[in-house]
Amino acid sequence: MTATTPLKVIIIGGGPIGLTLAQILTSAGVDFTILERRSTVTPEEGAGIAIGPTSFRLYDQLGLLPQMEAISTPIPHKHVLQRDGKVYNSYEFHLRACHGRAMAFLHRLDLVTTLFSTLPDSAKAKIHVNKSLSDITLTPEGVTVTCADGTSYNGTLVIGADGVHSKTRKIMNSLSNAPESETLPFETTFQGLFGNFPRLSLPGSEIEPGHDWECHSGGVSSQFFVGRDRGWFIIYRPLPGGPTRERIDYTDEDIKQFAEDVKDMHVTNKLTFGDVFKNVNKAGLTQLQEGAVKNRSWKRIGLVGDACDKITPNVGLGYNNGVLDVIVLGNLLKKLNESGEEITEEKVGKLFKEYQAERKEFSEKVDDAARGVIRTVTHTGFMKYLLDRWINPVLGLDKLYGSKVMGPLMAKQQVLEWLEEKNGIDGSIPWAHKGLVVTKA
Ligand SMILES: Cc1cc2nc3c(=O)[nH]c(=O)nc-3n(C[C@H](O)[C@H](O)[C@H](O)COP(=O)(O)OP(=O)(O)OC[C@H]3O[C@@H](n4cnc5c(N)ncnc54)[C@H](O)[C@@H]3O)c2cc1C
């Protein structure tokens, strides 16, 4: 491989962000290889994911809108309750009014299955499973990536989409002699019990699709999203042992104990968590890391998604923020690929720096918002309790923050420059970028 051969991107990790990048690079005509550690890119993990307006714009551009709409349920309504089920705040999320589209919820498995199955066969053939990254070597022309099974792959650059425990990040930090703080950049203060259940298995006429029920209380809080066919929950509480930077692996016994601890807590005005847990399809317990790396890249190695920026799920933006990472990179990589220029280490380094600069403002705001929200909904301190229980319901600060702070920032986020948005919807805040604009005769 010489420096003038076409760009080839090696993506580590075929999770939601790696697969979204695969869709983008396929459309951009940029060659890639995905190396995924697991035996499949479509594992069942039990979790749901909220999809926001910016991700729907991408799906529209990629021609995936009908598929994504078919597997998701818009959730425009939110209700906040006490532990005993008393509702003290009900409102409509700001997203539809501001950006034309409500947040929609889908099953993570349906998301990755759709992202994978809609790739052309030629792109599917570029995804290799049972390939666990073990090393990256920089060469004068590019990179050589080695997997635990001894196989190796050459490319122009590497993108680590390998999640919160990113091996790409570890290798990058070791090669660049990064400070110790960058090796374990995330701290965990909260844990989350999550899972899904068949919607019709639940008693209670209030369980109609389209609602997010949230219990906010001292030391524990829940989110309960009701879709057409199934519902998803996540229960948040502080780590029993206090904050840590270490990895925690949970057992089935831990899951049972957590569920037992919160079984009397209401997750809707009529249902307790105990009612829901009896009907659960699959549940998991995870630590909820928070934090962001200082440097998202070094030379020919870059990071996207949870590998570089990790938030708790309260604001439903982990995946959506990662999608914005790969949109920005997609725009830059397409230009580089088509430039016909020699792809030097310096050029790749500059591209990654441009990517980091573009993503800085919104990612930092998202991190701050998620950090504030989880502490508010678990009433961490009297002021947070006061804000959540008494001030917010009267003044509507949630909606105000959404529409006046996050909304204008969200509207500034990029779309793919080379594709038309066929079903673009505007809300009260106009989008700054429109993608390819086709003028109709
Ligand atoms: C309970 C829960 C609920 C959530 N809800 C939402 C939500 O509503 N909205 C939202 O936007 N986000 C949500 N998130 C966050 C969202 O799931 C993540 O932000 C998103 O999955 C990150 O995708 P990723 O591809 O970066 O990382 P991951 O999903 O972690 O995928 C990483 C991939 O890399 C692979 N990999 C790891 N190491 C290696 C290696 N050494 N070699 C090769 N491959 C490797 C892994 O097997 C995996 O397939 C939620 C998260 C949780 C836990």
Keywords, separated by commas or semicolons:
441 residues, alpha+beta, FAD/NAD(P)-binding domain, D-Amino Acid Oxidase, Chain A, domain 2, eight-stranded mixed β-sheet, 20 strands, 24% strand, binds flavin-adenine dinucleotide
pLDDT < 50 stretches: none
**Annotated CATH topology of the largest domain:** FAD/NAD(P)-binding domain
The CATH H-level homologous superfamily of the largest domain: FAD/NAD(P)-binding domain
Q: Strand order of the main beta sheet, please?
A: 6-5-14-15-16-13-17-20
Largest beta-sheet details: 8 strands, mixed
User: What hetero molecules are in the model?
Assistant: flavin-adenine dinucleotide
CA-based gyration radius: 22 Å
Net shape:
globular
Estimate nothing, just give the exact number of structural domains.
Answer: 2
Distance between the termini: 46 Å
**Helicity, in percent?**
25-40%
Indicate the CATH architecture of the largest domain.
3-Layer(bba) Sandwich
Protein name: Podospora anserina S mat+ genomic DNA chromosome 2, supercontig 2
GO molecular function: FAD binding; monooxygenase activity
InterPro entries: FAD-bd (IPR002938), FAD/NAD-bd_sf (IPR036188), FAD_mOase_fung (IPR050562)
Domain FAD-binding: 8-368
